[in-house]
Design brief:
two-stranded antiparallel sheet; 72% helix
């Protein structure tokens, strides 16, 4: 089953042109255009171009340890960009994803420290809280019919204020307490924030998790009924509901997947740095959304892949670290980010028109 076929879910009736005519038009298209119709191809070419550019402009990038740092930066973005991309394919946004990462880390840290329990207790409670936040966002969107932009903007403000206020109330400052000497910390760090050697270079475990999650998300989208549901509700939820797709269940679980991603990245932050700054996370949601858009996900839903955001996140990590290795002013990162985002939108528009043109 191809992405292109899933991107236009069945609406209960065949297209007006008929299956035979559609197949003939597709057959007449050059192979290059059929390849370009895949949402991940454009961003892959862009990622290769960015990589080659910085390999030339910033010689330190050629070092193995530098590439490991780039992959690490990419993975921390990419792990969250994956569920955000799935949600966008399903036709929704989540503006609370950035601060939700910090909320998850703060929950695990403060609960474990204040109750003097094994850190895994805090980890499990943080997972429940993160999934509950996602479920709340999804339920509110489906219950009220309000745009997810507005619902999750409200959740963003609630979480941002709660992160700061609760942390100051409990710890007396804007950061959580150090949990590095608590029971279970070593094993939790091994799962969420450890490193391993490859050819003399230390690689963060998040890189492995990132690729595992990407492979799993790709399998779900391309080989499961749930993947068909995601494309269907993003294309037209009314048509999807008419042919028996559980729209409410699909959209709520997509928001919960974003909650899961926020939990995982939050745990990585906690066990990497031992403490959490309660004011962080603001603005990260735009990075995750941009990585998904650069990866080929349409703002209108119903189109995209899980592989595209992997390359989108890699471009972010490459630019972020490449600017540093090149010795340029890091303030230029946001400018590069804007150029990449605008370029990706224009390329996606051109690809769509080229792929559907007779």
């Amino acid at each position: 089953m191809s992405v292109a076929r899933q991107a236009e879910p069945a609406a209960g009736t065949p297209p007006a042109s008929g299956p035979g005519r559609t197949g003939g038009r597709t057959a007449r298209r050059p192979p290059a255009l059929r390849l370009l119709a895949r949402p991940e191809v454009g961003v892959f070419l862009g990622a290769v171009a960015v990589l080659v550019f910085f390999l030339i402009a910033a010689p330190p990038v050629r070092d193995g340890s530098s590439m490991a740092n780039i992959l690490y930066q990419s993975s921390t973005i990419g792990i969250m960009a994956l569920p955000v991309a799935l949600l966008m394919i399903g036709g929704e946004f989540d503006l609370s994803s950035g601060v939700a990462v910090i909320s998850s880390a703060l929950t695990a840290s403060m609960l474990s420290y204040q109750l003097t329990v094994n850190v895994w207790t805090g980890v499990v409670v943080a997972l429940v809280v993160s999934l509950a936040i996602g479920a709340f966002n999804g339920w509110m969107v489906m219950r009220t019919g309000l745009p997810s932009f507005l619902v999750t903007l409200g959740t963003f403000l609630i979480l941002q204020g709660a992160n700061l206020a609760v942390t100051k109330l409990i710890t007396g400052n804007v950061a959580s307490d150090d949990v590095s000497d608590m029971d279970g910390f070593g094993r939790a760090k091994a799962v969420f924030a450890s490193s391993f050697g490859v050819g003399g270079v230390q690689v963060k475990i998040t890189v492995v998790w990132w690729l595992v999650f990407a492979a799993l998300a790709t399998w779900v989208l391309l080989r499961t009924r749930y993947g068909n549901w995601v494309f269907a509700v993003g294309g037209s939820k009314d048509s999807a509901r008419a042919v028996g797709v559980p729209v409410r269940f699909t959209k709520i679980t997509l928001f919960m997947l974003v909650g899961f991603g926020a939990w995982f990245v939050g745990m990585h932050n906690l066990f990497s740095f031992n403490t959490v700054q309660s004011g962080e996370g603001v603005g990260q949601e735009l990075i995750y959304i941009a990585a998904a858009v650069i990866g080929g996900c349409l703002l209108t839903g119903g189109h995209g892949s899980a592989i595209g955001p992997v390359f989108g996140a890699f471009m972010f990590g490459m630019v972020q670290q490449g600017i540093v290795y090149a010795g340029w002013n890091p303030d230029w990162f946001k400018a590069f980010l804007g150029v990449m985002l605008l370029g990706a939108v224009l390329i996606n528009l051109w690809v769509q028109r080229s792929a559907t043109r007779r």
